[in-house]
Amino acid sequence: MKRPLIAVSGMNAVDSPGPGVPVLRSLKESDLHPRLIGFAYGTLEPGNFMTDFLENSFLFPYPNAGPGVLLDRIKKIHSDYQMDVIIPTLDSELDNYIAIEHELDQMGIKMVLPGKKELHTRDKTYLSESLKDTEVLLPETRTIQDIASLRQATDEIGFPLFMKGIFYEAFYARNYEEAAGYFYSISAKWGVPVIVQKYISGEECNICALANKGELVGGVVMKKLFLTDKGKAWAGVTIGNEEVKKISTSILKFINWHGGCELEFIIESKTGKMYLLEINPRFPAWVYLATASGQNLPDALVKMALGKSIPSFSSYEVGKVFVRHSWDEIIPMKQIEALTVYGQLVDPKKESSYE
Amino acid sequence: MSIGSLKNLALSDNGFVFDPTTGNTFIFNETALTIVRCLIQEKSKEEIIRFLLEEYEVGAEELERDYSDTMIHLKELGLYQ
């Protein structure tokens, strides 16, 4: 049987890690025995050099270059590496991939992506509106386009609150001055709108899930045990919270989700009520915990893409812990040179030259 | 009184306890661990005290106190309503 060639983006395994490396690690355990390559936006993204997982890595222009540039770059790589599946793992690149999904399909490259409408239904800025007729609880949220709207939003919500970027980052603000500072720093980095959200005191727990046209294929619930100063989980444990699984199943059905995702919840300490914070439109960076607990969701996604039968996941191992760590990779300068000059780690035509 | 949360707990003999629903972990002393095991077996307070008297060379008054302390602790942890 031909080994499928799968490309995975998100090689930025840094302090705010992308999901690419754990997706590759999961696929390394697939019974399809796929060949794996990585798509990166920077030479020094650590995943580029994890040659235990991938046989080559390629540099890409940033998503704001648009879908046409992305398609050209993929066509160039496809001439050397006939890809079967691409798994984009970053929020900011999904619009472009959805725009070129048909062209890639014509080239024989499959993806599992939500539709444009579904992607925006779960957008942080529309989520309250999208789920207003359901029983799902969401923290009070305002979406603002300019600093002039901040005062009214904070007056209505009250402090403390969270200031959130449209794609990434969230900051805890205790007063108007802090909120205004975060508005400027977030809008400078991620653009507008900026999201103002009520702070709920409680414990966070998330589910890493895969859905097929709204039907849950698999899902693993994790409680964060240790957070970085950016609020990223640096350690977590799988838990058997049936309520999270049940409500996630109904939300994904309601928004007709297709693909990998992460739903973030917070359970309010004083009331025990469960609030949905956001829905991330791709696997989380802790997806390998799901694999290690018995649900290899990236493998299932590839099988969905290739039209193969999807494994059925009825349970997973509860009490499995992940602890992330940092590690200094030592890289030959030739590899930096190759990525910088040629935009790829290995030239398949003269593979030995970059060793 | 409900022991629903207790029934789900993963108990180790060394006192390490994992709640698979919330992900919380706890350390219980030997007496507390024994009381929790008895509660899971749906033993009454009187049965638990009698069992502890047979197991440990401690007076009934002290065991009554240990039982009360453990129950308060379990309620504080949200493991017993």
Automatic annotation (TrEMBL), chain A:
InterPro entries: ATP-grasp
Taxonomic superkingdom: Bacteria
Keywords: ATP-binding, Nucleotide-binding
ATP-grasp domain sequence ranges: 128-306
Name this protein carries in UniProt: Carbamoyl phosphate synthase
Highest classification ranks of the organism: Bacteria, Pseudomonadati, Spirochaetota, Spirochaetia, Leptospirales
ATP-binding keyword on record: yes
Signal peptide: none
UniProt xrefs under Pfam families: ATPgrasp_Ter
From TrEMBL, chain B:
InterPro entries hit by this protein: PQQD (IPR008792), PqqD_sf (IPR041881)
Taxonomy, superkingdom: Bacteria
One Pfam family this sequence matches: PqqD
Protein name according to UniProt: PqqD family protein
Species this chain originates from: Leptospira kobayashii
